[in-house]
Design a protein that fits this description.
The protein is mostly helical and about 140 residues long. It has six helices and two strands.
Length: about 140
């Protein structure tokens, strides 16, 4: 399995390999302006990411109705990451799992806070969605907007 094809919009922005543009690629009208979706507005961290990334995506004509859900997924992955980080800040890295029998404490076990795994998975998910738009550092070096 080879590399994924580079989207035409990204290829045009980078200025390279224009002779290899897919002439049959679907063309969607870029979003130039829109109201923030209610789902995004409902979460402070998702809204924060939307307000940070939306202007860049619009300016580079990377956002359209067909990939709007993918863009929202970036915002929600960021929100999950931030909520998990908040939980770790509040509870700490380690949690004590208390085992009681008949109301008497039998033992205490230390376990890693599950929010750490959620934060790590959310960062991975966010990066995977960002790759689709060319928002990653490696992708940014290829785009000359």
């Amino acid at each position: 399995m080879g590399n994924r094809p580079t989207p035409t919009a990204t290829r045009k922005l980078s200025g390279s390999n224009l002779h290899r543009v897919n002439k049959k690629e679907a063309h969607f009208k870029p979003i130039e302006e829109m109201d923030i979706p209610e789902e995004v507005r409902a979460d402070k961290y998702a809204l924060e990411e939307w307000e940070r990334m939306f202007p860049e995506a619009v300016e580079n004509r990377l956002l359209n109705r067909a990939n709007l859900a993918e863009f929202m997924a970036i915002c929600f992955a960021y929100a999950a990451w931030m909520h998990a980080d908040d939980q770790v800040a509040e509870q700490g890295y380690w949690l004590t799992d208390k085992i009681c029998k008949d109301g008497v404490l039998v033992s205490e076990n230390m376990k890693l806070n599950p929010a750490l795994r959620i934060a790590a998975q959310s960062r991975i998910e966010m990066r995977l969605h960002e790759i689709e738009f060319g928002f990653t550092p490696a992708g940014a070096t290829k785009v000359y907007a």
